[in-house]
Amino acid sequence: MALVLDTVGPVFAVIALGYLLAGRRALDLPTLSNLAILVTSPALMFSVLSGSELVATQWAVLAGGTVFVAAGAAVLALA
């Protein structure tokens, strides 16, 4: 039973999310692209990183890259 719920649950969650979003605003291309970038990309990153085995040096490189990207975005936002 758990296997069925693990398989079918996300499908119904996406259907419910689409139903809720369609009732609140029109689902045009910019809305869908924002949803894809702001919701599904971080979820994919979390899913990939939670299933991987990283040693301390790899975590340091990942953290350094994150700081670099955030700092670059801050510089671009302030420029």
Largest sheet data: none
Q: Give the integer mean of the pLDDT values.
A: 84
Helix and strand element order:
HHH
What is the rounded distance between the termini? Answer: 55 Å
Give helix % range. over 70%
Q: What overall form do the CA principal axes indicate?
A: flat
Counting DSSP H or I runs of 4 or more residues, the number of helices is 3
Q: Which stretches are low in confidence, meaning pLDDT under 50 for 5 or more residues running? A: none
- What would you report as the Rg, rounded to the nearest angstrom? 18 Å
Structural class call reads: mainly alpha
Roughly what fraction of the amino acids lie in strands? Answer: under 5%
Secondary structure layout:
Blueprint: H1 2-24, H2 29-50, H3 56-78
Describe this structure in words.
This protein has three helices and no strands. The protein has helices at 2-24, 29-50, 56-78. It is flat, with a radius of gyration of 18 Å.
Keywords:
single chain; 79 residues; mainly alpha; 3 helices
What's this model, at a glance?
This protein has 79 residues and is mainly alpha-helical. It contains three helices and no strands.
